[in-house]
């Protein structure tokens, strides 16, 4: 009798565990698609200032992405290329392609509360974390992500709240090793883009004392999924070529 | 004959016990003071040099050409296997270790800092230079899976990490890509070599090789059996292998080398001080003693005693004071130094300032035979010098005159 | 009393040998003490002065939170008007605004992260030694645009020379992205490896355009008219600052260096102390010898009724006179040496170069400290030492009974 209970329990846990994997896979697919062409507006709030930027982002799957700054005029034409774990930047003002070195990976990306590392690493949840479904109700799944031994993420723990309806993230909490909440990422305003749904409002809210009063808000102006994107965008030549 | 001379000298000194003992005490105490300072200053310098040698350069270090000025990871020692073979067969080499050396970034969720990364083998480092002796917290190993890291204590403070905490290390690998690995802090180390304590991280050598895509090492460090022959070994290495640079610890740490040299000049000055002290002290006593006994000496000379014998008498007085003073001073000085060599001089009150300049809070004194030899020479020469004037006075005096008052 | 004074003086005159030796020893020791104090104090002062004047400055105004968290949230706002306000204090000799930040420099072959500072070139001439450290090329001017003044070790890392162009990318004060090309105008070398390998400077007017930092700064440097009283001025300035700003003197922000100097001083004084133990004994022995040589005389004096007290005073008087003459001579010689080397600093030469570099000194010229108060203090110490060392012999000789004394051999 007890053996059967054990088997059932085991299967349930297995199913729960598997479903965490499946949920995450669905979410990642929903966030990236086969390809994605987005126009984004980013507003960075600090204690003293508020700055707006407009960008275009082209990406294929999880590994390749190309970004271009459209506004303000000062930064127009700056391009970024990310292939696997490496990122390059082209700055028209100085006419140089710079490869982002290890020491810069944790610097903020374009003055926002996202780091270069965030952009490079954004889609390797499945590779980097053990996933466990720890809670669900009618609206959301809550998945606990614990870094694998080998993974090189700085977080001690990440809690993702995912919308059951859309399989899109709603809120992500980032904790350090001591359990201190370092930052929260909100995904809001889910809209329909073609066949897919996508959060049109992202808010990164740092929680530490040093970053008090800061937040970064990204709003999606337009998003086209799974369209054919020229592979020439994902070469180093593209950085300068598509800068104009 | 000599027995008489010695007895007479001794008796003369004993007649003026207070004076005699005062001079002996003066020589002894100045000798004690100077020996103590020598030993402690030498101890301090040696400790600083040892810290640098044990933690970083050993006595001799080999790098690929231009590695030190450009710090490019692609400049690794290509002929490392041959060099290691050579060193094993070289009689003057006591032991050697090899390390991966590069720079990168260490990060936690809240902080990140630039760091120097050292890929080492814990067993080798322990036998070679007891690097394990510097561990302050945790252990000198990288855990079962070799995923550990040992961090300099100042760096650990800045990152606010302790034993067991996770850190992410990123660096440029051989293909110029950014590579990262995740490690857990297994030990915190305090070497008092500032560069290491403030920005150094030790990781397992093999893991470093994988992480950075290296097949060889960047640094080979050597301890010699006989350091005085270091230049020979350097030359040999340079002629045998043409793609390397070889540096001794003085070249890698010029400031320390200079400190050592300054200490040497300091010790010469202090022995000159002892010399003068002894001379002046003995001079005073002997002069007065001679002047007091002009009559005695006059009588002796009148009855035919050769001047040589008189000289011997005066000399023995001086010699006796000097020797006893030397002996006493060396005994007390040596004893104090021995105490401090075992228990150390505790300067922990100044630990903040000391930490800043890479000095240990507890200094262990050094005892060297040469301290006592130089002391002996100084005092002995003083005994000779100090009697010159009194002897001249004696020589000039005419026996008849002094006998008649 | 009078006859004894004359006896004392006669004794000094007659026992020329003893007198000369004692005066020689005591005055030499006094001169040495005065000189060593002047030397050590001078050494520490110059080390601190050089370290402070090289770049950090005597007084720094920063945002209160800036030292712990150097982010753009913790800047000095309305920097220019604040400087005007500070200048109203008469004790302020000169001021300088700085904006320090980190950027990534990119030459044709290498990328290196380093510090770049927007400075006021004319003001920095007085407030730091940047101009004096010029090695190649030229220093900055107030009208310069995108010209860079860079440390030589940093230039080596980037493999660039005067006239080359390099680019940088960084973040502006409004968190915007900024980048530009810079032409190397000059290369400097302070001798401090850390500083020379991580620092570079541009004209703040140009910096403000690129980094959007008009009227903002990370540091305001102040040089007081009286550099020995920087702390006092710093406290005064604190009173007129808005509450989010803070003023600190170099004693506060360079605390560890100050402590290290103190430690060094202690070691120095211990060394000197041992030397004085020796001198103490030498004088003691000589006094003993000379006093004993007159023991018959003293015995007779006692026998004719001179009180112990009076003998004591007479001998003491001799000692005081000799000591006084000695310290006067020694003090003057020592003071002269201190003064001379204060005006003409001692050149220590290459043997000490590396040591000095560690402490932040760019040169090896050491002026001694000429401080009248210290000199007088040293003379007093020697005086007490000299007189003190004669006490034992005087007391000892006085303890003899008159008959014993007369019959003493």
Give the radius of gyration of chain A.
19 Å
CATH superfamily of chain A: Lipoprotein localisation LolA/LolB/LppX
Class derived from helix and strand content of chain C: alpha+beta
Query: End-to-end distance of chain C, in Å?
Result: 29 Å
Mean of all residue-level pLDDT scores of chain A? 86
The description of the largest β-sheet of chain C is:
6 strands, mixed, barrel
Shape designation of chain A: globular
Q: What is the CATH topology assignment of chain A?
A: outer membrane lipoprotein receptor (LolB), chain A
CATH architecture field of chain A: Clam
Query: How much strand of chain A?
Result: over 45%
> Per DSSP, what share of the residues of chain C sits in E-state strands of 2 or more residues?
15-25%
Specify the structural class of chain A.
Answer: alpha+beta
Domains of chain C (count): 2
Q: Secondary-structure element sequence of chain C?
A: HHEHEEHEEHEEHEHEHEHHHHEHEHH
Poorly predicted sequence stretches spanning 5 or more consecutive residues of chain C: none
The CATH class name of chain A reads: Mainly Beta
From the alpha carbons, calculate the radius of gyration of chain C and give it in angstroms: 31 Å
Number of helices of chain C: 15
Descriptive terms for the model:
heterotrimer; A: 244 residues; alpha+beta; outer membrane lipoprotein receptor (LolB), chain A; 13-stranded antiparallel beta sheet; 4 helices; 13 strands; 45% strand; globular; C: 409 residues; 2 domains; 6-stranded mixed beta barrel; two-stranded antiparallel ribbon; 15 helices; 12 strands; 56% helix
Write the layout of secondary structure elements.
The complex is a heterotrimer of chains A (244), B (405) and C (409).
Chain A: H1 2-32, E1 35-45, E2 50-60, E3 64-71, E4 79-83, E5 86-91, E6 96-99, H2 116-121, H3 125-128, E7 129-136, E8 140-147, E9 157-163, E10 168-175, E11 181-193, E12 196-206, E13 215-225, H4 236-241
Antiparallel strand pairs in A: 1-2, 1-13, 2-3, 3-4, 4-5, 5-6, 7-8, 8-9, 9-10, 10-11, 11-12, 12-13
Chain B: H1 2-15, H2 17-57, E1 60-64, H3 67-70, H4 80-89, E2 93-107, E3 112-120, H5 122-129, E4 135-138, E5 148-152, H6 153-159, E6 166-172, E7 178-189, H7 194-199, E8 200-204, H8 205-212, E9 219-224, H9 230-240, E10 244-248, H10 249-252, H11 254-292, H12 294-302, H13 307-343, E11 345-346, H14 351-356, E12 362-363, H15 369-386, H16 388-396, H17 399-403
Parallel strand pairs in B: 3-8, 5-7
Antiparallel strand pairs in B: 1-9, 1-10, 2-3, 2-6, 2-9, 4-7, 5-8, 6-7, 11-12
Chain C: H1 2-14, H2 16-54, E1 59-63, H3 79-87, E2 92-106, E3 111-119, H4 121-127, E4 134-137, E5 147-151, H5 152-158, E6 165-171, E7 177-188, H6 193-198, E8 199-203, H7 204-211, E9 219-224, H8 230-240, E10 245-249, H9 250-253, H10 255-293, H11 295-303, H12 308-343, E11 346-347, H13 353-359, E12 365-366, H14 372-398, H15 402-407
Parallel strand pairs in C: 3-8, 5-7
Antiparallel strand pairs in C: 1-9, 1-10, 2-3, 2-6, 2-9, 4-7, 5-8, 6-7, 11-12
């Amino acid at each position: 009798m007890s053996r059967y209970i054990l088997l059932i329990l085991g299967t349930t846990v297995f199913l729960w565990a598997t479903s965490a994997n499946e949920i995450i896979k669905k979410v990642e697919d929903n966030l990236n698609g086969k390809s994605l062409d987005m126009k984004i507006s980013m507003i960075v709030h600090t204690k003293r200032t508020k700055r707006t930027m407009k960008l275009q982002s082209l990406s294929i799957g999880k590994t390749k992405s190309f970004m271009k700054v459209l506004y303000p005029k000062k930064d127009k034409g700056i391009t970024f290329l990310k292939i696997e774990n490496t990122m390059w930047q082209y700055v028209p003002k100085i006419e140089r392609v710079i490869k982002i070195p290890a020491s810069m990976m944790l610097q903020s990306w374009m003055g926002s509360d996202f780091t270069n590392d965030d952009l490079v690493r954004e889609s390797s949840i499945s590779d980097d974390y053990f996933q466990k479904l720890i809670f669900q109700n009618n609206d959301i799944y809550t998945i606990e992500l614990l870094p694998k031994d080998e993974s090189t993420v700085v977080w001690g723990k990440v809690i993702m709240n995912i919308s059951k309806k859309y399989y899109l993230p709603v809120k992500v909490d980032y904790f350090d090793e001591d359990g201190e909440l370092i930052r929260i990422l909100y995904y809001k305003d889910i809209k329909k883009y073609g066949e897919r749904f996508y959060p049109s409002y992202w808010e990164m809210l740092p929680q530490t004392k040093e970053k008090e009063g800061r937040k970064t808000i990204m709003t999606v102006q337009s998003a086209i999924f799974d369209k054919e994107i020229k592979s020439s965008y994902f070469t180093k030549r593209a950085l300068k070529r598509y800068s104009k | 004959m000599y027995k008489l001379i010695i007895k007479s000298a001794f008796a003369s000194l004993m007649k003026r016990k207070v004076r005699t003992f005062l001079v002996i005490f003066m020589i002894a105490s100045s000798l004690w003071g100077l020996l103590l300072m020598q030993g402690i200053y030498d101890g301090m310098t040696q400790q600083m040099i040892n810290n640098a040698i044990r933690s970083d350069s050993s006595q001799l270090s080999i790098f690929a050409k231009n590695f030190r000025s450009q710090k490019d990871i692609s400049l690794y020692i290509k002929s490392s296997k041959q060099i290691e073979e050579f060193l094993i067969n070289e009689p003057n080499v006591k032991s050697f270790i090899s390390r991966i050396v590069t720079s990168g970034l260490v990060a936690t969720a809240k902080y990140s800092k630039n760091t120097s990364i050292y890929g080492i083998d814990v067993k080798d480092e322990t036998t070679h230079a007891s690097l394990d002796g510097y561990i302050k917290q945790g252990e000198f190993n990288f855990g079962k899976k070799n995923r550990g890291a040992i961090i300099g204590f100042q760096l650990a403070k800045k990152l606010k990490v302790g034993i067991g905490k996770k850190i992410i290390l990123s660096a440029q690998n051989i293909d110029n890509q950014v590579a990262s690995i995740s490690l857990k802090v297994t030990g915190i180390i305090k070497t008092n070599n500032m560069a290491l304590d403030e920005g150094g991280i030790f990781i397992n050598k093999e893991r470093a090789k994988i992480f950075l895509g290296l097949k060889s090492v960047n640094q080979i460090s050597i301890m010699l059996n006989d350091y005085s022959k270091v230049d020979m070994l350097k030359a040999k290495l340079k002629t045998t292998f043409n793609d390397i640079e070889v540096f001794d610890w003085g070249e890698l740490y010029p400031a320390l080398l200079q400190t050592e040299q300054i200490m040497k000049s300091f010790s010469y000055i202090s022995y000159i001080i002892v010399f003068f002290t002894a001379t002046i002290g003995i001079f005073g006593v002997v002069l007065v003693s001679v002047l007091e006994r002009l009559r005695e000496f006059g009588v002796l000379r009148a009855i035919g005693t050769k001047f040589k014998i008189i000289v011997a008498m005066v000399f023995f007085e001086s010699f006796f004071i000097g020797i006893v003073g030397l002996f006493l001073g060396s005994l007390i000085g040596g004893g104090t130094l021995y105490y401090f060599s075992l228990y150390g001089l505790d300067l922990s009150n100044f630990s903040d300032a000391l930490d800043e300049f890479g000095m240990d809070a507890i200094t262990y004194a050094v005892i060297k035979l040469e301290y006592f030899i130089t002391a002996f020479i100084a005092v002995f020469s003083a005994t000779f010098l100090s009697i010159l004037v009194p002897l001249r006075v004696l020589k000039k005096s005419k026996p008849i005159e002094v006998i008649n008052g | 009393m009078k006859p004894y004074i004359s006896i004392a003086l006669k004794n000094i005159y007659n026992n020329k040998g003893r007198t000369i030796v004692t005066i020689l020893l005591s005055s030499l020791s006094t001169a040495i003490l005065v000189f060593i104090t002047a030397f050590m104090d001078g050494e520490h002062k110059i080390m601190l002065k050089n370290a402070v004047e090289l770049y950090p400055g005597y007084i720094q105004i920063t945002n209160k939170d800036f030292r712990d968290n150097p982010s753009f949230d913790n800047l000095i706002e309305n920097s220019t008007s604040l400087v005007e306000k500070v200048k109203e204090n008469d004790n302020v000799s000169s001021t300088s605004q700085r904006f320090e930040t980190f950027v990534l420099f990119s030459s044709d072959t290498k990328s290196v992260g380093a510090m770049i500072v927007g400075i006021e070139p004319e003001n920095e001439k007085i407030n730091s030694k940047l101009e004096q450290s010029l090695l190649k090329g030229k220093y900055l001017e107030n009208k310069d645009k995108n010209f860079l003044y860079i440390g030589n070790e940093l230039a080596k890392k980037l493999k660039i020379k005067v006239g080359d162009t390099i680019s940088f990318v960084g973040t502006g004060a409004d968190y915007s992205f900024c980048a530009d090309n810079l032409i190397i105008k000059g290369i400097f070398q302070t001798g401090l490896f850390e500083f020379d390998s991580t620092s570079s400077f541009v004209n703040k007017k140009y910096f403000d355009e690129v980094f959007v930092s008009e009227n903002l700064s990370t540091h305001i440097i102040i040089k007081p008219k009286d550099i020995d009283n920087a702390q006092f001025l710093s406290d005064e300035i604190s009173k007129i600052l808005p509450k989010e700003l803070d003023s600190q003197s170099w004693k506060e922000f360079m605390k560890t260096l100050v402590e290290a100097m103190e430690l060094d001083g202690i070691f120095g004084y211990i060394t000197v102390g041992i030397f004085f133990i020796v001198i103490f004994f030498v004088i003691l022995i000589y006094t003993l010898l000379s006093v004993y040589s007159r023991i018959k005389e003293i015995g007779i004096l006692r026998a004719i009724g001179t009180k112990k007290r009076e003998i004591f005073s007479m001998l003491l008087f001799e000692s005081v006179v000799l000591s006084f003459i000695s310290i006067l001579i020694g003090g003057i010689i020592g003071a002269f040496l201190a003064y001379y080397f204060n005006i003409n600093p001692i050149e220590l030469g290459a043997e000490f170069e590396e040591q000095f570099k560690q402490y932040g000194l760019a040169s090896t010229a050491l002026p001694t400290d000429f401080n009248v108060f210290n000199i007088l203090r040293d003379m007093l110490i020697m005086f007490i030492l000299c007189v003190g060392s004669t006490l034992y012999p005087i007391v000892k000789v006085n303890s003899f009974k008159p008959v014993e004394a007369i019959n003493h051999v």
